[in-house]
Amino acid sequence: xxxxxxxxxxxxxxxxxxxxxxxxxxxxxxxxxxxxxxxxxxxxxxxxxxxxxxxxxxxxxxxxxxxxxxxxxxxxxxxxxxxxxxxxxxxxxxxxxxxxxxxxxxxxxxxxxxxxxxxxxxxxxxxxxxxxxxxxxxxxxxxxxxxxxxxxxxxxxxxxxxxxxxxxxxxxxxxxxxxxxxxxxxxxxxxxxxxxxxxxxxxxxxxxxxxxxxxxxxxxxxxxxxxxxxxxxxxxxxxxxxxxxxxxxxxxxxxxxxxxxxxxxxxxxxxxxxxxxxxxxxxxxxxxxxxxxxxxxxxxxxxxxxxxxxxxx
Length: 313
Hints:
Elements: E1 2-11, E2 14-24, E3 28-33, H1 40-47, E4 55-60, E5 63-64, E6 73-76, H2 88-98, H3 103-116, H4 132-144, E7 150-154, H5 162-177, E8 181-185, H6 189-195, E9 198-203, E10 206-211, H7 213-220, E11 224-230, E12 242-248, E13 251-256, H8 262-275, E14 279-286, H9 290-312
Parallel strand pairs: 3-8, 3-9, 6-7, 7-8
Antiparallel strand pairs: 1-2, 1-4, 4-5, 9-10, 11-13, 11-14, 12-13
């Protein structure tokens, strides 16, 4: 178990992490999300012992973090950092040796993971001969081949084609079933919604969201209606119980006001569409997306911070 207790980190007068506490359990994929500059990267560096907190403590299995605990951690950074003129096998050997692996186990793990990702024939090729997606797989292998207990994945699917993304996702799910703690950082809310068991959102260094996807939807979300509509849909903004309309390609996501009668609203939408010669091919009530909740809470939190800063002036 990984625990952060009241962690604070300042850079001069700027507070990057502000009294942050959360728990990450074994066998869970925890999404660490937030806007740019929210404090995610600083939080990860604190957990990895690259930075030291100004106050608070980080515990692994109930014990304070020690230098040797770094071997328990695997990290896939968003900015990839392989030595391009090195051979794939030499690169993996070097990074594995930094984690204390013995030579025999290193060779076994290299062959196992290269085979798993269909990269065996590239074992003795230089990194700069690989495609971006292949390089990303090599960096992922380097992050997990020493069997870490805690794994940080920062935008792991960036630049991967759908087949490679599924390949990587299958491995991540296997690591989860093995009881690893997986911290997953991404800006793509749809991805977090699909694979994460638990979401922690931070903004301005503070935790503003902490819970399962289901709990978050129940607590923060308001239901919406999605329609596939061809034609002029401006009439939607005239319906009293409609709170807002978001266009996503040919689909319209309609947020309705709290307390609205959903059945009556759907009937009114259909009738108004007919009157305005707008053809609806599908209509469904759906739960709020993590994206919409993220945007709503981040905007609210930004507003609160702006008001607090104004009050202090």
